[in-house]
UniProtKB/TrEMBL annotation:
This protein's name: biotin--[biotin carboxyl-carrier protein] ligase
Segments forming domain BPL/LPL catalytic: 12-189
Pfam family name, one: BPL_C
InterPro entries recorded: aa-tRNA-synth_II/BPL/LPL (IPR045864), Biotin_CoA_COase_ligase (IPR004408), BPL_C (IPR003142), BPL_LPL_catalytic (IPR004143), Transcriptional_repressor_C (IPR008988)
One GO MF term attached to the UniProt entry: biotin--[biotin carboxyl-carrier protein] ligase activity
Source organism, top-level taxon: Bacteria
Matches recorded under PROSITE patterns: BPL_LPL_CATALYTIC (PS51733)
Annotated signal peptide: none
GO CC annotation terms, alphabetical: cytoplasm
Organism: Rhizobium laguerreae
Length: 254
């Protein structure tokens, strides 16, 4: 524990298991949690046979990209977990920044945690949680980064690091992700550092002040992206002075 009350996190607090192939690194982490793993475990795979994105969408998972999941056990009180996706997005942004050449297109975060290069998606993050029978809570952060392979029929414009001039391998990129995540989780401080995290997120955010459409499970709402509040909710200005906070949805620009 540091003098400021923040629990120090080091690279030595985390473990890493590299697999050649698995159905899903998220599923692998969840299985480890159910079997009693203590957390702070990274699982990577060269290929996934059943990778998935948000809302159960298929995540193309051929060799050449980075597929990584982090298992955390009781990472924060439930009321402070909502800011964790923002923290992870900051860490992934930092990792990708370290392998992009100077001439690459702008690297930004689309709310809440898609990573864009030149407004094209290069990374998706899926956060899943489950209460365990022994009373612990398992939270799994799945990260898929396009390095050399992209989906054929994407919902959004996509790119990969190769198209942006990066020669980084999945192993090199993961080394940066491993380090950046430890650094950012220390700042996040079990949710107590949300002010610092939201400030870092806003500095790399895409589209604040622009017109957006947010697709919710039952409807679509358009307005101006007014940023995020201190709890990480998207603030949508729908006009007439009304600001609507949104906790989850798919954002489209223009």
């Amino acid at each position: 524990m540091a003098s400021d009350g923040r629990r120090r996190i080091s690279l030595g607090d985390f473990r890493h298991e590299a697999l050649s192939e698995t159905s899903s690194t998220n599923s692998e982490c969840l299985a480890r949690a159910r079997a009693g793993d203590g957390g702070n475990l990274w699982v990577t795979a060269e290929r996934q046979t059943g990778g998935r994105g948000r809302r159960g969408r298929l995540w193309v998972s051929e060799r050449g990209n980075l597929y990584a999941s982090l298992l955390l056990i009781d990472p924060a009180p439930m009321e402070r977990l909502g800011s964790l996706p923002l923290a992870i997005a900051v860490a992934v942004h930092q990792a990708i920044r370290r392998v992009l050449p100077l001439g690459a297109e702008p690297l930004e975060v689309k709310w809440p945690n898609d990573i864009l290069i030149g407004r094209k998606k290069t990374c998706g993050i899926l956060v899943e949680g489950e209460g365990l029978p022994d009373g612990r809570y398992a939270l799994i952060v799945g990260i898929g980064i396009n390095i050399s392979v992209m989906p054929d029929n994407p919902l959004y414009p996509v790119t990969c690091l190769r198209q942006q001039g990066s020669a980084a391998s999945p192993e090199e990129l993961f080394a940066h992700l491993f380090a950046a995540t430890a650094e950012v989780l220390e700042i996040w401080d079990e949710g107590r550092g949300i002010g610092e995290i939201t400030a870092l997120w806003r500095a790399i955010a895409c589209g604040i002040g622009e017109k957006i459409t947010v697709n919710l499970p039952d409807r679509s709402i358009s307005g101006q992206f007014a940023g995020i509040n201190d709890n990480g909710l998207l603030m949508l200005d729908t006009g007439a002075g009304r600001i609507m906070p949104i906790a989850a949805g798919d954002v489209f620009f223009g």
